[in-house]
Amino acid sequence: MSLVFVRDLHKVYHLGGKEVHVLKGVDLDIQRGETVAVVGPSGVGKSTLLHLIGALDHPTHGEITVDGVKLWGLSDLEMARLRANQIGFVFQFHHLLPEFTALENVMLAGLIRSGEGNPKARAIELLHRVGLSHRLDHKPGELSGGEQQRVALARALHNQPPLVLADEPTGNLDRDTALELQHLVFELASERALSFLIVTHDLKFAERCHRILRLQDGRVVETVTPEFNTKRLPLAP
Length: 237
Ligand SMILES: Nc1ncnc2c1ncn2[C@@H]1O[C@H](COP(=O)(O)OP(=O)(O)O)[C@@H](O)[C@H]1O
Ligand SMILES: [Mg+2]
Description:
The chain has helices at residues 46-53, 76-86, 102-111, 119-129, 145-157, 175-192, 203-207, 226-230; strands spanning 4-15, 18-30, 35-39, 61-66, 69-70, 87-90, 163-167, 195-199, 211-216, 219-223. The longest helix is centred in the last third of the chain and has 18 residues, at 175-192. It has one domain: Rossmann fold (3-Layer(aba) Sandwich), CATH 3.40.50. By secondary structure, it is α/β, with parallel strands linked by helices. A hairpin with a 2-residue loop joins strand 9 (211-216) and strand 10. Residues 46-47, 167 line the site of magnesium ion.
C-alpha cells in the first residue's frame, strides 16, 4: 500500500463571503522511500496540498491516507498525534524557537511523543548527521541560514517519521547552501527509506526527485521529461 494515498481531494476557502476553490480533485500516491517534487506557480495551492496531507487542515472533500491512517474524520487530537509520529515538516522559514539551542529545538520535537529510545541521543545523532556537531549549543540567531535549515531538517526527522513534507525548503537559501541541503535530503531519504514530498521552484532540485508533480487548475499532473528519466535515482530498498 502507498505511504500516501490521496483521492479526489478538494479544498475550498471561504474568504469575505467569497469561495476560493483551490484544489479541485487531486489524486496522488507516494510510495515508501520515494522523493516527489510538487511544482507550479505561486498561489496554485501547493502549500494547501501539503497542509492537508500533513493533517494541519481539513479538506472540503476527498480521501487522504498516510501510513495506513485515514485522515478523514479524525479529531484534532488524533490529527496532532498523526503529525507527531508519522510526519516531519520543513518550511521555507525554519520556524525554530529562538530562545532554545539547536539541540533543544531538535529534542523538543520528541517531547510530544512518548517515543522509544533516548530523545537527546537521537537529536545529537541527527545534528551530527546534518553536519552540525559543533553547533549543538547555538541558538538559531547564532546560526547561518543554511545551518538553521539543517537544524529544521534534523527536527523533522527526530520522531523517525516515514514521511517528510517540505514547503520550499531551499527558497530562502543561496545557491550553494541550497545545494548542500538538497544533497542531505536525498542522502537521508535513501539511507532511511524516507519519503519526501517537496514543494520547490527550483527545477534542478525537482529533477533529482523520483517524480515531479505539477499542480495546475486545482489538479495534479505528472510531468516526466526524457532528461529527467535518465537522472532518476534508485528507490531506497
Ligand atoms: N487560509 C486561507 N484562507 C483563504 N484563502 C487562502 C488561505 N490559504 C490559502 N489561500 C488561497 O489559496 C490559494 C492557494 O494558496 P497556497 O496553497 O498558499 O498556494 P501556493 O503555495 O501554491 O503559493 C491562494 O489563492 C491563496 O490566497
Ligand atoms: Mg506556498
